[in-house]
């Protein structure tokens, strides 16, 4: 390496699940950010959010010292108080009286320590994560079909496919660099077909050969229709289905489906079915439009059914592909950050798995049953059964469904700790103890992107003020609670190595997640660690899964599930509109970082309601006026954006703005806490609302 690159620090973008490599270089003007040409995820590309990272590194709004009841305190006092309060709650009410609510933006090492502390030492599984709102339905779908939460394919499959279907995924805005790769692939090979399946005409449709603006919630019906078409047109792979249980039942259920519920022009539906059936190299990419649903798991399995039936999985240019929302949603899954999982993709409810982890950790107490998933966790907080709650690196008072109710629940809890890098959010204002955490540019550790590639985030500069790393804070509390030996790390490399060693044990038990190649890694090796795909062990390195038809189920066979599409929550006379929610191109989550960049706010500066011209006219809403949106849960006031990209009756609003912003754009206050019965993921895409001029 020479010149500029030799001086640059290699790190990873903290936003979406693409996981782009970043080169950060300090200049007299500040931090210069560029895409890392050597990172396999982005090969030098960045999107607007990644490119603006240098503008978000100031100290504006940072939490720089611990606070107890709003008063600055020293670290020892704050940590002693947290440990004592959690210990008292556990001693008086049992381990299930405490809970951690964490984040897909934590680094894997932070996540591992939180999970170890709660599941191995406190002895409860009450740790859940904002990833529950993001991809829990994909996890459930994978586990039901494959026996493990395994993403079969790689990003390059999108470039090698002859057909890419984007379902419930506005890839252009939500995973922009992956979309850029798809744009480049189509430019180089125009025969590559792209289909977008989405009720909205999103920016991703600019690349589409076909846009299916299906009725909201009818995705499973579409893929059931596809399964029937595949069977009737002789496209089922007779050899591959020898490796699958449940084909006949899945097909029988699919035959009961009425594809009319998709409300698609017949010619478009037939064109899609023929294209999918007639193209061997097909990748179906899906994201929140599938996952964030009261039947998200079934939608995922309806997609997986079609790939399994045709054997189009795990081979170049073929497969279902879940793209995760957050930078480390996958890392969180790997450490067992969900309330119903154990570390290294082991199963909490399998005694041999539990015993292996307990032995490895020398853990005094392991839960035998899943803990509370996100929505249920905050319900338990509301009910008073959770006595001590620790919220880490996330802002649930804005981002949880039924957000007003969640904020009230947090406010009512006996003891609330919030670790955050920002001083003033809707959630930090509810904390009894505030702990300053390091943020991107200060943290050191790893993240895993949507294609299972583990990359390093590296510190560019020292921690701001008195901020500490999340893993350090958690380990300090673990030590204060009496478990000094188990939480004795000095460096994140030691945590990574411990996780890698545990993954070797998991691999021997049949887990797909095995990175035991790195079990003996040194600090220097960790510093130099290049991005790599898992698995990484003596038996298997990188690559794809399942092409040979061997799965991680007890009998080694995949499972196709009979799926019956379910109707989403109905509108009623008082709430005649179905509100869709989602991200915008240039902001991220609750904007605590992207809101610091004036450039990023130029794209869409205010919370808005995108509404069809017919609806706007009927309601007397003028362009750029304000609309009051109400649901049975809450209220928001949004700027009117009249657009025929949304269907009549189906407006759209972005999720990013908080209660501090005027007009009040806290859209998750409108969203009901209806969850998928399998995954526990909320139905964030389907709030029924009333709309009126404000
Ligand atoms: Fe960051 Fe995602 Fe943009 Fe890449 S595509 S620069 S990971 S936000």
From TrEMBL:
Superkingdom of the organism of origin: Bacteria
Gene Ontology cellular-component terms listed: membrane; oxidoreductase complex
Record's keyword annotation contains Iron-sulfur: yes
Keywords: 4Fe-4S, Iron, Iron-sulfur, Metal-binding, Molybdenum, Nitrate assimilation, Oxidoreductase
Biological process per Gene Ontology, one example term: nitrate assimilation
The keyword Hydrolase is annotated on this UniProt entry: no
Coiled-coil stretches noted in the UniProt entry, renumbered to this chain: none
MF (Gene Ontology): 4 iron, 4 sulfur cluster binding; metal ion binding; molybdopterin cofactor binding; oxidoreductase activity
Domain (4Fe-4S Mo/W bis-MGD-type): residue spans on this chain: 6-61
Cofactors: [4Fe-4S] cluster; Mo-bis(molybdopterin guanine dinucleotide)
Family: Belongs to the prokaryotic molybdopterin-containing oxidoreductase family. NasA/NapA/NarB subfamily.
UniProt protein name: Molybdopterin-dependent oxidoreductase
Protein species of origin: Gemmobacter fulvus
Residue numbers of the full-length protein present here: 15 to 708 of 894
